Amino acid sequence: GKIIDDRLSGFVSGIVDDGTLYDLKYYFWAGFGILIRMYSPAVIRSLFRHLKRQMAFKDIKIKPELLSIAVRDDMRGRGIGTSLVNALDNYFRERNIKVYKVYTDMLYSTGSRLYEKLGFELFREVDLFGLPFRLYIRNLKR
């Protein structure tokens, strides 16, 4: 996270191996939660979008991933997002990772502007049941 004036202004999270994140247990518990406690069309649609995303990008062998980045609305435009991405870049470089990926939707996220500004390459865009969704790739240069 990034602290300015004793307040969290933004955060970034990443993972070195996404295989540990999306395994069979993930789908079992997600499905179980929908059936038992969280039944709603929005939640079911989200699960189906996730499944379709996994199928649309199954050829991608890049394991490291930027999972989430957020900057407080009142702190945007101050370079915080860039600083957070640079911190994640350094984290990956320290682990000898040369490339990573990030997924973003085009309806609810503004991340694509940041990724394009920082030189991420658009790899593919797909439609996930009405949700335009992109995969960007970041090559880390030494």
Instruction: Kindly state the percentage of residues in helix.
Output: 25-40%
The SSE order reads: EEHHEHEHEE
Spans where pLDDT lies below 50 across 5 or more residues: none
The count of helical stretches stands at 4
Give the termini separation: 24 Å
Per DSSP, what share of the residues sits in E-state strands of 2 or more residues?
A: 25-35%
Radius of gyration: 16 Å
For the secondary structure, the number of strands is 6
Shape estimate: globular
* Largest sheet, strands/sense/barrel: 6 strands, mixed
Mean pLDDT: 83
Class by helix and strand content? alpha+beta
Strand order of the largest sheet: 1-2-3-4-6-5
Can you walk me through this structure?
- The chain is an alpha+beta fold.
- The chain is built from four helices and six strands.
- The protein has helices spanning 24-36, 41-56, 80-94, 111-117; strands spanning 2-4, 7-15, 65-71, 99-105, 121-128, 131-139.
- Strands 1-2-3-4-6-5 form a six-stranded mixed beta sheet, with helices on both faces.
- It is globular.
- The mean pLDDT is 83.
